[in-house]
Amino acid sequence: MIARPTFFVALGAALVAGAALLVDVDLRLREARAQDGREWSRTGPFPNHEVYYPGTETLAPDEMRVVACGTGMPTPRLKQAAACFLVELGNGDKFIFDLGEGSYERISALGIPLDQLDKVFLGHLHLDHAGDFPAFYMTGPVNNRLRPLRVWGPAGVRPDWGTKAWVAHMEAMWAWESATRGAVVDPRGLQLEVNEFDWTAVNQVIFDENGVVVRTLPAVHGEQTVSFLLEWKGLRFAFSSDTLPTTGWRDHAKGVDLSIHECFLPPRMMMSKLGMTASEAIFVGTQGHTSAQAFGKIMSLTEPRLAVCYHFQNDNDTALAVYDDIRKTYAGPLDLAQDFMVWNVTKETIRTRMAVPNHEGFPAPAQRAKQPPDSMAILADLLSETTFKSIEPQSAAVTNEQIKVFNERNGTNVQPGLTAVPFRNP
Ligand SMILES: [Zn+2]
Ligand SMILES: [Zn+2]
Predict the structure, then answer these.
(1) What is the dihedral of CA 108, 114, 116, 120, to 10 degrees?
(2) Are residues 262 and 399 in the same domain?
(3) For residue 184, what are the domain limits?
């Protein structure tokens, strides 16, 4: 008897809560239907407005989509690759800004044909902004890129430090890779167009095609570093690469739609998390890079539609610390970038979501007919007695039989250049 009133109170509360939940769900459904303007099928898919599934969303003709393919640090980390942002436009153009270590796998997880990703802009040549470029370039043809790759980067303050020299050194370093892998892939995707620009010019146009203009601003980060501005159909995207806040950014990134600027952990966290000494932490965190307070200040000065900070380990504890420091100097719209964060930008709205990447992706299909090379003829010069003598005959016999069956099924006439060797008459 004593328990009864308590029971009814509890039951009553549960019913009220349940009813409130039902009302809430019903309201949301009705509101969504009102926006959608049609009834949803009970068996068909429901519109999902919370996440972005790559490869399933058409961009409007005047819409820009930006995907964070790397928001972290040089320190390797599963959660965050180093710097890389992909910009996709409603006219079909796509641009990669910086290509730090680990970012290539993020790009691949979006399933975009590599022929459509032929423009790479490097703000500077530190590993955490350019480290995945060799892999992106050299394995492009393996992943069905059949078009030349185009890259833009700064000229050097010394002749051997600029982007052209960097590419030449890369090709020299990977000479054997090019000779061997190059022998088995369509060679067209290994053509490279290198565009070097003067990093000191302010608001300099370095790209102007198809209604898209890309400009550079000198950055403060060990010289020969730039920030980028992209403008298309009145939409403006700004990407700092690495820099302290600059007068160029203050004057030319004012009021941009999406303002992606670097921002480091508070120095005390660089000491506790990264093992830096006090003098290292304060120097790196304020003189080599933008502190969270300084990030907030430059955003207050430029008032973008949406400010995005990147270039720190974005975890629960660090995010709170960075957020608190930014809020000391900036009160406007703000995102703390993570890998696979996505921004859809139109004149009317900016929407932030997370992408759902494909962890088991295969290369997107080739965009043109392939022209595979005669690999055996190319490799013939390279192969030695050591290779030929190392071919195990019984396994080779199995392989030769497999090739015979393959030829019969596919109407091809592939010859086993290597595995036939043990059966050749001396
Ligand atoms: Zn750097
Ligand atoms: Zn960096």
Answers:
(1) 80
(2) no
(3) 51-355
